Amino acid sequence: MNLAQLLVRTARTHPTRPAILLGDRPLFDYGTLAGRASRIARFLRNSARLEPGARVAVCMVNCVEYLETLYGIWWAGLTAVPINAKLHAKEVAFIVQNAEAAALFVSDTLAADVLSQIPDLRDVFVPGRAEYDALLRAEPLAPQPRAPDDVAWLFYTSGTTGQPKGVMQTHRNLYAATTCYFAAVDDVSADDATVYAAPISHGAGIYNFQHVLKGARHVVPESHGFEPAELVALSRSVGRLSMFAAPTMVKRLVDHVQAADADTAGFKTIVYGGGPMYVEDIKHALDTMGDRFAQIYGQGESPMTITALSRDQIADRAHPRWESRLASVGIAQPVVEVKVADADGNPLPVGETGEILVRGDTVMAGYWRNPEATARTLRDGWLWTGDLGSFDDDGFLTLKDRSKDLIISGGTNIYPREVEEVLLRHPAVQEVSVVGGKDPEWGEIVVAFVVGTGVTSAELDALCLDHIARFKRPKQYRFVDQLPKNNYGKVLKTALRDLL
Known about the structure:
Elements: H1 4-13, E1 18-22, E2 25-29, H2 30-47, E3 55-59, H3 66-75, E4 79-82, H4 89-98, E5 103-106, H5 108-117, E6 123-125, H6 130-135, E7 151-157, E8 165-170, H7 171-185, E9 193-195, H8 203-206, H9 208-213, E10 217-220, H10 228-237, E11 241-245, H11 247-260, E12 267-272, H12 279-289, E13 293-299, E14 302-309, H13 311-315, H14 322-326, E15 331-332, E16 336-341, E17 354-360, H15 371-377, E18 378-379, E19 382-391, E20 397-402, E21 407-409, E22 412-414, H16 416-423, E23 429-439, E24 443-452, H17 457-467, E25 476-479, H18 493-499
Parallel strand pairs: 1-10, 3-4, 3-5, 5-6, 9-10, 9-11, 11-12, 12-13, 24-25
Antiparallel strand pairs: 1-2, 7-8, 13-14, 14-15, 16-17, 17-19, 18-19, 19-20, 21-22, 23-24
Helix pairs in contact: 1-2, 2-3, 4-5, 10-11, 11-12
């Protein structure tokens, strides 16, 4: 059960179907894509001498080489470690070293900074450079066998301790996630196109499998990211365009469409998730762009696959509980079981709030070489998500809060402890506490409450930019005399949120 077989199957039956587009320009068909992946696989196994299961890191902006790199890694029987290209070079280096990656694929624009932090890595491949071209001159390799529970994708998600944890997503997990999409989210045809406006290293990349399986097109924007005007233009020139987007991206796209009075007939499906979508925002999106939206709720430990709110459910304005359903994250996806439980794992009645638990073939194998965190999160076959929610009588799940103080800004997870530890490096900072503040554009922004004298916001900004990704730094600094605490000395973050 090797994920590479999805590409093998389509390339054999439909080799001339267009596979990779840069903007609206077709570059590779499926036969060519499979051939390039097989050559990358041969080089990694024979020339780089990587053993089965070895980790290969990928830190690249969205580019036409991204999918051939991922499939080349799987084709060779190796494990892909996709890394958010927005991370600081020091954060990238930590992931590469923690995963014990034997090789790295990195974008030219990122290479210098990243390699300055890991100068001893032997095998580094940069698309556009000679070492990458050498990969594609290798002889093709037959896809290497993998067991269903072998790790395919090592996804690093920040933890409350500030150290990222590697989520082990197996071939079985990702095959199950692919099935979930067809059953709960949307169908795909060969005429469809998925556009990578969100990072391929994350949720948007998980949705490549469904489109490879059906022989659909994969579109990399010329901007390599999210630009509303560009997406509208692609919807016209490419047609039947689908995408995964954070709620903030949806809002920006809808605002552009409204301001430009743009024709959106070329959009097929927009799947949103990764953060809270406000009811008024999705209603405005429906009024502006029509009934082409679906929602998913998941996390790295069960990628994109906990619950879903289908296009039909979102569009069903006649239902008496339509607005409450829009405020929910939908119903359990088909191959998982979801329950709301008390602290002992006992299911709670309808309407009561508890922790959301999930089990099924989409749930991770555990955290990479972190048995303590695995034992805390996987118990008796259930994934304890750390999210709080409640069910209604029809099985629709509504999220209430996040028990881990996670901040979701623009669809990206930010953990306060990670930011706090950086700010505490400044000698004038005595105490600090980071919380999420509500924001109409980003959903949440990072706000730091700082106890200290003789320190400025500019100094703290510079400190953050030297150690963590730009998007994690606080958007606001509140300088206070003291932090509110309980009798045990624990900072009361709820009180800080009230201040906001």
